[in-house]
Amino acid sequence: MGYLRARNREGFDIYLWPFTVDRNSGYILVDLDRADPQVLHSMRSHGHEPCVVLQTSPGNLQAWVHVSTTPLEPAVASEIGRELARLYRGDPASTDWRHLGRLAGFTNQKPQRRGPGGYAPWVKLLHAQAGLATLGAGLVEAAQRRLRDRLPPTSQGAPCSLGPPDRSVTLAPHAGRSSSSHPPTRQPWLSAPPLRPRRLPAPHRRPSPDGARKRAFSQAQSARTARRFARRR
Question: E-assigned strands of 93-214?
């Protein structure tokens, strides 16, 4: 921790990401720059309640939504991030499956976030409560359905091309909350093909050095015998 604080004082930003090797761990980041004051209430009422909310600078929030207890394929996690950005006007450039979030207790070193006195704002923890979002499983299933339907992929470099939100993954106002019991399924096209055994060629057999010496000795012995018979004649 002391190392991170020293780097932060030197002007470095401190980020984190729930690590699961080559997949998403089930936590989706929603970057809410210039967030509406009612956005968190809206997320909770629609069944997408965040488990962690950070204030990265005055008026700017980051929310982590826990949607799955099992790791997600990158394409599915990115699709969920795009859907949450559509619904709550999040930053569409921060929707990829392994986008980093800021760590509370450190300062935001972006020059444009500094206050009037030139001081960097602190990243503050506003809310933390473990648990899955009520409609987390619904977000996963909807993302998998859209991918199966082969909708045109959204370019990560085109923030304005998110398209309309999918209202089927939100709760109606004042409706009871219920979550699907179906676990997320792995996409069949992302599975690795089976490995087939291959037979290695037989190694080349070289003649034994002892055999070569025996043949040379036999040839020399035959030549000496032939010369003796020739002299007798």
Answer: 101-102, 124-128
